[in-house]
Amino acid sequence: MAEIPFFEGVKQFKNLKFKEYEDIFKKLIEEGQHPKALFITCSDSRIHPDEITGADIGDLFIVRVIGNMVPPFKPDNEFHGVAAAVEYAVSVLNVPDIIICGHSHCGACEALYKDLPDDISIIHVKKWLELGKDVKQIAQQTIKEKGRPLFELTERINIIKQMENILTYPEVKRKVEEGKLRLHGWYYVIEKGQIEYYDPEKNDFIPIA
Question: Among 61, 92, 154, 209, who pairs with 139 as Cys (CB 3.0-4.6 Å)?
């Protein structure tokens, strides 16, 4: 029998950690979930939403997707996981906050500047990255040369773009305008353990002290 990944970790959770949080899990089952925020971030394995926010069990409704990209509202799509998650969080769970969290050294943002092969094994990756086309064009208006400065600018612009995209969802837009929902853009600098938040008045990312 092949070795099961993280088998020991699963056993430790059941025997140790679960007992510590058992009452919390029971309460969440009995009362249902009431997350404090919808947290949209990249699938990158180096991001640990609970750790970087200090969130507890049940605090975050998390959507993880390549490049923390949010497709614009388009009701005629047959299937759309990100859109469904956004709608559920906003219209059913009534989260008071949405956080779109991008990060440094994002492979998706760097891939915007690469010629990816016409390979069926990444056909959906290539299609998904089309969502970053406008981001790439805006970034290149400021920095022409490929390299870390261009990629970093792209990562930040990408967050702003996804904030614009999520506002195309009617219920998100309505609740934001009525003051019932707050929208935040975060940039996580992995190598520093630092979060920067987007300040729309300054049009800049400000480190959270």
Answer: 154
